[in-house]
Amino acid sequence: MIKHIVVWKLKESADGRTAHENAQEMKARLEALRGLVPGLLTLEVGLDFGRTAASADVALYSEFTDVDALRAYQVHPDHVAVARYVTSLCSERILVDYEI
């Protein structure tokens, strides 16, 4: 099983909306990816409520059956569209992929 975790810090504003508004839209778009890619087992999106200097704004936790399923997800057209949108909102992105 592959775990794919990504956290993002958002720009204070982008696309005419606040970071909080953009975080909510990101969550909706990411969650809409559920069920679209074979091998994507779990997808959770969380919005930070701590708002500390060390906090990220949005976290994605997902699980895949194997590396091939993760690779298929990364190039899936719906994921590519969401990733393009998310990139326009972010000031920082950190990720980790690992196998258990």
Largest sheet: 4 strands, antiparallel
Give the overall form. Answer: globular
CATH class: Alpha Beta
Using the CA coordinates, give the radius of gyration: 13 Å
What are the low-pLDDT stretches, counting only 5+ consecutive residues below 50?
none
As a percent range, the share of helical residues equals 25-40%
Q: In total, how many domains does the architecture comprise?
A: 1
Indicate the CATH topology. Answer: Alpha-Beta Plaits
Distance between the termini: 6 Å
Judged by helices, strands and strand pairing, the structural class is alpha+beta
Strand order of the largest sheet: 4-5-1-6
What is the CATH-assigned architecture?
A: 2-Layer Sandwich
Task: Count helical runs.
Answer: 3
Helix and strand pattern: EEEHEEHHE
Strand content: 35-45%
Tally of DSSP β-strands: 6
How would you state the average pLDDT, rounded? 96
What does this molecule look like?
Helix content is 35%, strand content 38%. It has one domain (2-99): Alpha-Beta Plaits (2-Layer Sandwich). The mean pLDDT is 96. With 100 residues, the protein is of the alpha+beta class. The strands form 2 sheets. Strands 4-5-1-6 form a 4-stranded antiparallel sheet. Strands 2-3 form a two-stranded antiparallel ribbon. The chain is built from 3 helices and 6 strands, in the order βββαββααβ. The longest helix is centred in the first third of the chain and has 13 residues, at 19-31. β2 (13-14) and β3 form a beta hairpin. It has helices at 19-31, 67-75, 77-89, and strands at 2-10, 13-14, 17-18, 40-47, 58-64, 90-99.
